[in-house]
């Protein structure tokens, strides 16, 4: 069976099995709480580490503009993530991502979406529950630094597991390689990956 047929079968199976699962996924992200009034002396700003990965250089300019933006909005500012941003908006999840508190997003690149056969991709994009399920699979709680990911098994917002192998710039999340990671936004850390992670 060809890779495209495997992807098509996975996407079609995903669409058929979404009932009742999407609502219990990314829709339950922990919302940011209002900050209590702070009367303490402000701390000095900390230095943020630069993003790492073989693909960072080509998108460096767009990444530098999103550190102060919430992740749902930030995705739309990175050309390489335009298809993911479109998917987030179609699922109605941009505001939910923006209001989430301290999360990590494994963000499939445009090339990752383009690797899925068009008919399967269009079918999932047109199904809000299926799309929410897929997107939830890419989000975990907590802002994860690269050192936190090495050898880790992470529980995503769908309740599934993501297995991380490798270290440094050579990280693999399930079967997806990191293209550029440790990208900060105001409420999330983003790792751009080269494949769409499909729920098992």
UniProtKB/TrEMBL annotation:
The entry's keywords: Signal
Region Disordered, annotated ranges: 30-53
An individual GO BP term: cell adhesion
Low complexity composition-biased segments: 30-51
Pfam families per the UniProt record, alphabetical: Fasciclin (PF02469)
A GO CC annotation given for this chain: extracellular space
Position of the signal peptide: 1-24
Domain named FAS1: residues: 68-197
Protein name, entry field: Fasciclin domain-containing protein
Annotated source species: Nonomuraea terrae
